[in-house]
């Protein structure tokens, strides 16, 4: 489960990196290296989560604790850097409220990771079941509470990216539609004659992947004229028959 969470976290961080990179190309607000450093730290945190998942606490406690330290420290620094990027891109790409929320989550996580590391370093033994009368029980409780606080902070911080992902998706759709409109109107914008645009449209329509819609001819064919004449003659004959039937014969 932790391995799957680490994979999802890495995918989310990379997606966030590409979104910020695209936004920065549209309107420059931050150094690209700043965004790259945050991505590297975030991926290192995901690697730390993988170490925690694959090395058990009781079997190899040193490796397990090292992975946890890497995951939490790099994760907290990642949230701080992303909060700074959010403020730099405000208000064009992020609202002020969202920036404040991200900064608050980062501050709480940063405040929780310090006592977590301090109390974990004071624990002399590694065990799963604790007795409240043991001397390191308080350190264990404080470290566990801070650890879960930081973990939930990461979850809530990632949830704040949902709005950015939705906005970027809608922007991409609008850009695609704008590109299509620009392509169709480009010949007229450059002053090309209408015939050139007609030839271009005809070439596109003859392509098998873009079939040309079937339209009715402007002029009726000879068969249509003949059928119309027959129908008119039939209607006139029918009307004459009805008039003759309705006309009373002379006495």
Automatic annotation (TrEMBL):
Q: What GO biological process, any one, is recorded here?
A: regulation of autophagy
Q: How does it sit in the membrane?
A: Multi-pass membrane protein
**Pfam hit, one:** Frag1
The protein's matches in InterPro entries, at most eight in alphabetical order, are given as: CWH43_N (IPR019402), DRAM/TMEM150_Autophagy_Mod (IPR050911)
Keywords, ordered alphabetically: Membrane, Transmembrane, Transmembrane helix
- The primary site where this protein sits is membrane
Q: Which spans are transmembrane here?
A: 33-55, 67-85, 105-125, 137-159
Q: Which residues form the CWH43-like N-terminal domain?
A: 1-166
Establish whether keyword Transmembrane helix is in the entry.
yes
CC annotations in GO: endomembrane system; lysosome
Q: Which domain of life is it from?
A: Eukaryota
Provide the protein's localization.
Answer: Endomembrane system
Q: Where is this region: Disordered?
A: 190-227
Give the compositionally biased regions (Basic and acidic residues).
207-221
The family annotation for this protein states: Belongs to the DRAM/TMEM150 family.
Protein name in the entry: DNA damage-regulated autophagy modulator protein 1
Organism of derivation? Carlito syrichta
């Amino acid at each position: 489960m932790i391995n799957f969470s680490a994979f999802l976290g890495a995918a989310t961080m990379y997606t966030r990196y590409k979104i910020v990179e695209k936004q920065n190309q549209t309107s420059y607000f931050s150094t690209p290296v700043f965004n790259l450093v945050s991505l590297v730290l975030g991926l290192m945190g995901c690697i730390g989560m993988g170490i925690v998942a694959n090395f058990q606490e009781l079997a190899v406690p040193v490796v397990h604790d090292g992975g946890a330290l890497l995951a939490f420290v790099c994760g907290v620094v990642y949230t701080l850097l992303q909060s700074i990027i959010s403020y730099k891109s405000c208000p064009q790409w992020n609202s002020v409220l969202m920036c404040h929320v991200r900064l608050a989550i980062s501050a709480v996580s940063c405040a929780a990771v310090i006592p977590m590391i301090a109390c974990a370093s004071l624990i002399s033994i590694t065990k799963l079941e604790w007795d409240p009368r043991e001397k390191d029980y308080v350190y264990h409780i404080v470290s566990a509470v801070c650890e879960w606080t930081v973990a939930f902070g990461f979850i809530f911080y990632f949830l704040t990216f949902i709005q950015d992902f939705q906005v970027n998706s809608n922007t991409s759709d609008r850009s695609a539609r704008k590109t299509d409109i620009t392509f169709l109107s480009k010949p007229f914008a450059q002053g090309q004659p209408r015939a050139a645009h007609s030839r271009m449209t005809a070439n596109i329509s003859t392509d098998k992947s873009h079939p040309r819609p079937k339209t009715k001819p402007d002029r009726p064919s000879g068969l249509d004229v003949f059928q119309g004449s027959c129908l008119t003659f039939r209607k006139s004959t029918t009307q004459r028959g009805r008039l003759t039937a309705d006309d009373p014969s002379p006495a």
